[in-house]
Amino acid sequence: MITEKYDYYNLKKENINGSRKYITPDGHALPSVTTILSATQPEEKKKALQEWRKRVGYQKAQEITTEAAGRGTRMHKWLETYVLTDDRGTPGSNPYSIQSHKMAQTIIDKGLVNCDEFWGTEISLYFPEIYAGTTDLVGLHDGQEAIMDHKQTNKPKKREWIDDYFIQMTAYADAHNALYGTNIQKGVIFMCSKDNEYQEFIVEGQEFDKYHQMWLSKLEQYYSQFV
Predict the structure, then answer these.
(1) What is the pLDDT of residue 49?
(2) Is residue 96 within 8 Å of 74, Cβ to Cβ?
(3) Which of 13, 16, 113, 199 has the most CB atoms around its CB within 10 Å?
(4) Is residue 205 part of a domain?
C-alpha cells in the first residue's frame, strides 16, 4: 500500500512536431528520458538492432516486439494494482494474462517483498526546464530511498547489456531530488522473463555516480545536437 509522503501529480503529454513532450506546471514542453536516450544511442547499438531485425525477419521482429510490449504492459498493471491496493488480482483464462500475472507475482514475492515503503507508482517526474518522464516506483528498498523499475524480458539479461536502464534511473533520481528534496542515490530493477526467471539489479554508490555522469553527458549531447 502507498505511504503518501509526497504530493505527486500527473504531467500531461502532447505530440509537438512529431515528438511526444511532457507539459510541466510552469508550461514547459520537455523531452522524455527515453527520447533522450534513444536520440543519443551509440551507432553500434543501432546497428546491432538493425542486424537483429534483418536476421530474424522484419515481420517476425515486429511480432516479437509487439508481444513483449503487451506482456510488459499487462505485468505493469498487475504490479501497479498490487502497490496501490495490496490486491494480487486474478488473471482469468486468457493465456497472456495468466503469463503476465505469474511474472508479476514473482516480482512481488522476490523483489517487492524487500520494499519497506511505496511512495508512489507510475510517477510523473521532471527536472525543471530540462527533461521529464515516468518511473514505475519510488520508495524505500532495504531501508534506503530508491527509484525502482519493473522490467519484463524475453530471456534473462546480463548486467552489461542494460546500461540504459541504470542511466534512466539516475535521471529519475535527479528529477525526484530536485522536485521533492530527497537524496536518492539508489536504483533497483526487478526483472522477470516470460519463462518466469527472476533477476534483480541494484545500482548505488560509485556505480550510481558513474551512470549519473553518463546521463549528464547524454543530456549535453542531446541539447547540443538535437535541440
Answers:
(1) 66
(2) yes
(3) 199
(4) yes
Say what the alpha-carbon torsion angle 95, 60, 199, 175 is, to the nearest 10 degrees.
-100
Which three-class secondary structure string do you get for the chain?
CECCCCCCCCCEEEEECCEEEEECCCCCEEEEHHHHHHHCCCHHHHHHHHHHHHHHCHHHHHHHHHHHHHHHHHHHHHHHHHHHHCCCCCCCCCHHHHHHHHHHHHHHHHCHHHEEEEEEEEEEEEECCCEEEEEEEEEEECCEEEEEEEEEECCCCCHHHCHHHHHHHHHHHHHHHHHHCCCCCEEEEEEEECCCCEEEEEEEHHHHHHHHHHHHHHHHHHHHHCC
**66 domain residue, yes or no:** no
Q: Which domain holds residue 119?
A: 12-55+115-225
pLDDT in tens, 154-196: 999 999 999 999 999 999 999 999 999 999 999 999 999 999 9
Dihedral sign, Cα of residue 10, residue 12, residue 104, residue 141: negative
How many Cβ atoms from other residues are within 10 Å of residue 88's Cβ?
Answer: 15
Q: What is the pTM assigned to this prediction?
A: 0.92
Q: Which residue has the cell 528534496?
A: 181
Q: How far is CA 43 from CA 51, 212, 223, in A?
A: 12, 21, 18
Q: Half-sphere exposure (CA, 13 Å, Cβ side) for 112?
A: 29
CATH assignment at residue 168:
3.40.1350
Domain assignment of residue 167, yes or no? yes
